[in-house]
Structures are given as structure tokens and as C-alpha cells.
Amino acid sequence: MDLPIYEHLLAVNAGFAQVREALAALAERPGFERGEMARFSEMAEEAKTAICSYLASVIEIAETEDAGRLSKCRRARERREEG
Question: Which ranges of the chain does DSSP label H, i.e. alpha helix?
Fold first, then answer.
């Protein structure tokens, strides 16, 4: 898995952190109901965790496959070097 994938995962987390911070700031302003802002913040957190869970599972599968492939290559190289 290449670095941009992890950077995108970080960007998703950072984006949701910005959403929650903005909602908290808006909750302090007149005209915005704190309860509604809290509800939206909870919804954003739920969406973030669902997204990150999915992304992490896809990353895990790809990393496990890469580890297996690299391990096979290493073992084959070691056998050639020993022989």
C-alpha cells in the first residue's frame, strides 16, 4: 500500500475533526441550537468511524497480501543464495 493511501486516511480523519470543531464553535453562536450541533457532531463521528473502519479493512487486506508476496520473494532468494 503506498503512502498516498495513508495520507488520504489521515485527510479523512482531519476533515471530520474540522467538522466537529466547526460544529462546536457554531454551538456557541446565537441562533444555533447546542443540541442540534451535538447531534450533528455525533452523526459526523459515526460516519467517520464507519469510513475509517472500511478503509482500514481494505488497507489490512492489501498489506497482508503484500507481506505474503514479499515473504515468498525473500524465501525464494534465500533458497537461491543457499543453493
Answer: 3-27, 34-82
Return all residues near 16 (Cβ < 8 A) that are at least 6 apart.
44, 45, 47, 48
Total domains in the chain come to 1
| Residue with cell string 466547526 | 22
Under 8 Å between Cβ of 40 and 23: yes
Grid cell for residue 37: 450541533
Using CA atoms, how far apart are residues 3 and 28, in angstroms rounded to an integer? 38
Report if pTM > 0.90.
no
Q: For the chain, which ranges sit under pLDDT 70?
A: none
Host domain of residue 59: 3-82
pLDDT tens-digit map of 49-71: 999 999 999 999 999 999 999 99
